[in-house]
Every structure is written in C-alpha cells, then in structure tokens.
Design brief:
binds protoporphyrin IX containing FE; mainly alpha; globular; Heme Oxygenase, Chain A
Amino acid sequence: MTSTMTMEPSRAKRLKAQTHDTHAGVDSAIMSAASFADRAGYGRFLRVQYLFHRDIAALYAEPALQALLPGLPERQRLALIEADLIDLGMDAPRPEGPARFAAGEIDLPTGLGWLYVAEGSNMGAALLRKEVAKIGLSDTFGARHLAPAPEGPAAHWRSFTAALDAAELDESDEPRVGAGAGAAFARVQALIDGHIG
Ligand code: HEM
C-alpha cells in the first residue's frame, strides 16, 4: 500500500462520525436533567429506556439479524428494564402506539443502524451505573439493565462492531444503515423531550 492510499473507515466508524453530534445531544439532555440525582429522575430515564427498547425488541429476535450478529438474543435488555421498573414500584409507561419494529417486517440495513445505537449505548451505561450507585441502585436492584456484560463493556462492544463491520450489504443498501442510526437517535431524543426534558 502506498502512503497516499487512505483506508475506508469501517461501517461502525462511519456511523460514529455521522452520529457524533446527535449523541452529544442526548447525552447532555439526559445529564442536564439531573436524571440520576434521585430515583424520581432515574425513573423518568427508565421510562425512556423502556419505550426505546420496546420499539427494538423485534430486532433481537429477527433470524436474519441473528445470523449476522452472533449472540444477538442475549444482548436484549427489555426484560431487565421491566425488572428495574418493578424494583422501583413503577408501572411501565403506556406506549403511544405500536412498537417501531415488528417480526416479519424488518429491513435488515435499517435494523443494523438501530442496533448500532442501542448496543453502543452500553458504553455510556458503564458511566451511568456509577452515578446510580449513589442513589442505592445496582446490578441486582433497579439498574439491572446498566450492568456490564461478563467480558466487560469494551470487549462486548468490540465483538458487536466487528460483526457489524463484517456484514456484507449491497452498496445501494448502505445508506439505510446510517438512516437507521439517525432515526434511532431521533427517537431517543423525542422520548427524552417527552419524558425527561
Ligand atoms: C447520559 C447519557 C450518556 C452518556 C454519559 C454516554 C456516554 C458515552 C460514552 C462515554 C461512550 C464511549 C465513547 C467513545 O468510546 O468514544 C458512548 C458511546 C456511545 N453511546 Fe452514549 N452516552 C449516553 C447516552 C446515550 C444514549 C441515550 C444513547 C442511545 C440510545 C447512546 C448511544 C451511544 C453509542 C451508539 C455509542 C457508540 C459510539 C461509537 O463508539 O461508535 N448514548 N456513550
């Protein structure tokens, strides 16, 4: 390889660059609402998590996505969020409408984009876990869905991005991955505006 040839950034790196500002937006929207100062604030964050993970639950059960992303079913966090709501004596929020994804109606490139956002959010979870420990929440009470994977958040993320990068898509399908990631962040931001902001 001559020094002038530049390596095409990986799919995960392209998505990171594309969604950097949007991520900063949701991060600051959640933190500036002092969502972790007390259980009431955390409860509002948990409602956002519940509605977002309810939207994407069908993606984790989709055979075509499971074939591309080994261990996908085990990465689902909706049941943990439901257990956290019960720990805190909270009812699950009433959804405004049907979940965003339903079995049998999933566009693979779009689904990959949404899963990039959902799985990437585990990276921030490692930080949030420390915050909520200050209000008495833990991996076994109220913050189960923030608990790290056994291999640790970084290794768990690396195995996800390696599979995401290895997924073979037609060039014409690639833009829908990015659009999916953008739509996922927009959905999270809308839920934050509705339940936290
Ligand atoms: C208070 C809220 C949040 C904090 C403090 C936070 C923090 C972080 C941190 C420290 C990283 C690792 C950054 C890096 O390695 O460069 C990260 C990555 C990421 N976060 Fe967040 N995050 C928050 C909320 C969210 C939310 C709500 C979502 C979406 C649902 C999200 C999606 C992502 C994604 C997709 C990545 C991976 C970026 C990449 O390396 O490609 N984050 N976050």
